[in-house]
């Protein structure tokens, strides 16, 4: 067996011990093994589809009490949320958000600890804090009324629902228009 290892080292230009992975040649009871060099697998960079701007134009969200500066709001679903965008959610279990000046619930979602941690500050919002949405020269202010943990579409109600991830559920911060 030693002569096979020496021969392999000679024809491959290097010691057999440094080669991986092992491939079995299936020779006899004690199968001879040859180390084969494999290219190192590299993971291509993750590419996500860029979020689509809200069809009604550019809306922005600001939460000054927690240091959340103006961020654009995009309409979409999980893929848009996973891109790190503040997302006006559409099509989750038949429920969709709207954006001002419409009068249905403004339902915005983003991740808290992953995918850019866009909504990390939401857990630090307090009752009475002001959240602002702007569009062109218009402004809509919402006062945070309460926070809750919920995992169903029953959580989508009121004037404003800010949703973010939480272990085993979702954290919602609710606001009423002022």
Can you put this structure into words, describing what you see?
- There is one protein chain.
- The protein is mainly β and 178 residues long.
- 9% of the residues lie in helices and 37% in strands.
- The protein folds into 2 domains: 34 residues, no CATH class; 126 residues, Sortase, Chain: A.
- It has 2 helices and 11 strands; from the N terminus they run H-E-E-E-E-E-H-E-E-E-E-E-E.
- A hairpin with an 8-residue loop joins strand 1 and strand 2.
- The longest helix is centred in the first third of the chain and has 11 residues.
- The relative contact order is 0.13.
Kindly summarize this structure in a few lines.
This protein is mainly β. It has helices spanning 2-12, 78-82; strands spanning 22-24, 33-35, 52-53, 59-63, 68-76, 86-89, 106-109, 130-135, 138-150, 160-166, 169-177.
Distinctive features:
mainly beta, 11 strands, Sortase, Chain: A, disordered N terminus, 2 helices, about 180 residues
Q: Which helices and strands appear, and what pairs or packs with what?
A:
Layout: H1 2-12, E1 22-24, E2 33-35, E3 52-53, E4 59-63, E5 68-76, H2 78-82, E6 86-89, E7 106-109, E8 130-135, E9 138-150, E10 160-166, E11 169-177
Parallel strand pairs: 5-6, 7-10
Antiparallel strand pairs: 1-2, 3-5, 4-5, 4-8, 6-7, 8-9, 9-11, 10-11
């Amino acid at each position: 067996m030693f002569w096979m290892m020496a021969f392999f080292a000679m024809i491959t230009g290097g010691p057999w011990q440094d080669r991986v992975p092992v491939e079995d040649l299936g020779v006899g009871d004690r199968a001879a093994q040859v180390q084969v060099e494999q290219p190192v697998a590299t993971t291509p960079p993750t590419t996500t589809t860029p979020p689509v701007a809200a069809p009604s134009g550019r809306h922005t969200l600001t939460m000054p009490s927690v240091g959340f500066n103006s961020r654009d709001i995009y309409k979409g679903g999980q893929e848009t949320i996973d891109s790190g965008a503040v997302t006006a959610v559409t099509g989750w279990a038949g429920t969709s958000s709207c954006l001002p000046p419409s009068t249905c619930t403004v339902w915005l979602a983003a991740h808290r600890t992953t995918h850019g941690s866009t909504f990390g500050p939401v857990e630090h919002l307090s009752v009475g804090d002001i959240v602002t949405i702007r569009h062109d020269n218009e402004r809509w202010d919402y006062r945070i009324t309460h926070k809750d943990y919920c995992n169903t579409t029953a959580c989508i109600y009121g004037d404003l629902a800010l949703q973010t991830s939480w272990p085993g559920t979702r954290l919602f911060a609710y606001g009423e228009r002022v």
